[in-house]
Write a structure and sequence with these properties.
about 80% helix, 4 helices, transmembrane, membrane, transmembrane helix, about 80 residues
């Protein structure tokens, strides 16, 4: 029973990670598009500017912080189980 709960919980975390990751990427892309509209960069096309910004996003801290979705809920659940018992 506990193994089944862990399995479905992990599947839920995978779905949550996918949704948050796609949402975060789309928000960053929209911000880059807005920044380009406000102040275009000379010598770069709009697509190159956005791709460069998305490459920086992929290497950035925000993408790595989204991985905490796999760490924090199991730690909280473990702490609750420990404290209750």
């Amino acid at each position: 029973m506990f193994i089944r709960l862990m399995f479905f919980g992990f599947l839920g975390l995978i779905v949550l990670y996918a949704v948050v990751s796609v949402y975060s990427r789309s928000v960053r892309r929209e911000k880059l598009e807005d920044w380009w509209e406000e102040e275009p960069v000379e010598g770069k096309t709009r697509e190159a500017y956005i791709e460069e910004g998305m490459a920086a996003y992929d290497k950035g801290l925000r993408k790595k912080l989204i991985l905490l979705i796999f760490v924090i809920p199991p730690l909280v659940a473990g702490a609750i189980i420990y404290l209750i018992n």
